[in-house]
Amino acid sequence: MIHSFVFSEGKLAAQDLDLDALKLVRFDKGLIIWVDLDHPTEEETKQVLGDLFQFHPLAIEDCVAVSSLPKLEDYDDYEFMVMHAVDFNRQDKFRTTELDLFLGKDFLVTYHTEDLRSVRAAMERCSNKQTVQIARGPDRLAHTLLDLMVDNYQPMISELGRNWMKSRICCWVKGTRGCRANKSCNGCWSIGRM
User: Fold this and answer.
1) Domain coordinates in residue numbering, the chain
2) Given strand 71-74, what is the order of strands in its sheet?
3) Range 43-77 burial, b when 16+ CB lie within 10 A, else e
4) CA 140 to chain centre
5) Distances from the Cα of 118 to the Cαs of 18, 21, 40, 108, 109, in angstroms?
6) Per-residue pLDDT of the chain (194 residues; tens, 9 = 90+)
7) Angle at 37 between CA 34 and CA 43, to 5 degrees
8) d(CA 112, CA 174)
9) Nearest-angstrom CA–CA distance, 108 and 110
10) What residues have CB less than 8 Å from 171, skipping those under 6 apart?
11) End-to-end Cα spacing for the chain
12) Which of 56, 58, 89, 131 is deepest in the core (most CB within 10 A)?
């Protein structure tokens, strides 16, 4: 699915344009464009990344291939970033989801294959007319997305801290050897399973 936001002078001017309309506004001076590729098809990926924005084939390849490492590449007219959002819950434990960003002078293109809270929250801010600060430039949009991603790390860090502290207390009370050897401490073993 292709989501798009077009900003003019810090205000939302258009939203969710079709590809033909995006081609028309792509090179209009004074407009800031955010295109989000959410679970895109191969055709949508080719049309937006290859045809509309004409990103380098290696950047597109890096974007489409899942990577476990963050990345920052400098191209002539844009920066390409690979970042990872975190999702932590009791059922799935710890997992990350890749978010790729193409940041140019007057555009931001984001690409992800799973729903991301940070992207959804940024879209809601844009749709709810909270765009004055966000839409001043594509760098502000990128900063907002990355800031929201970092905010989502806090619950995971807190949970890891609690588990670590429980395991340390358990090992101190029972003695490290007895606790791990008998598997009687869920705290020690849950950290090892993360």
Assistant:
1) 2-151, 154-193
2) 11-15, 2-8, 31-38, 107-112, 93-104, 78-89, 71-74
3) ebbebbbeebbebbeebbebbeeeeeeeeeeeeee
4) 15
5) 24, 26, 18, 15, 15
6) 999 988 888 788 888 999 999 998 988 888 989 999 999 999 999 999 999 999 999 999 999 998 888 899 999 999 999 988 876 555 556 667 889 999 999 999 999 998 888 888 888 887 776 555 666 788 888 888 888 887 776 666 666 666 666 666 655 555 555 455 445 455 444 444 44
7) 125
8) 46
9) 7
10) 179, 180, 185, 188
11) 33
12) 131
How far is C-alpha 115 from the geometric centre of its chain's CA atoms? 9
User: What is the dotted CATH code of the domain comprising 2-151?
Assistant: 3.30.460.20
- Contact between 150 and 132 under an 8 Å Cβ cutoff? The reply is no
Going by C-alpha positions, the residue among 109, 147, 107, 105 that lies closest to residue 125 is 147
Residue 104 forms beta bridges with which residues? 78
Going from the C-alpha of 98 to that of each of 88, 130, 189, the distances in angstroms are: 14, 26, 28
The pLDDT of residue 94 is: 63
In the prediction, which pLDDT does 88 show?
A: 57
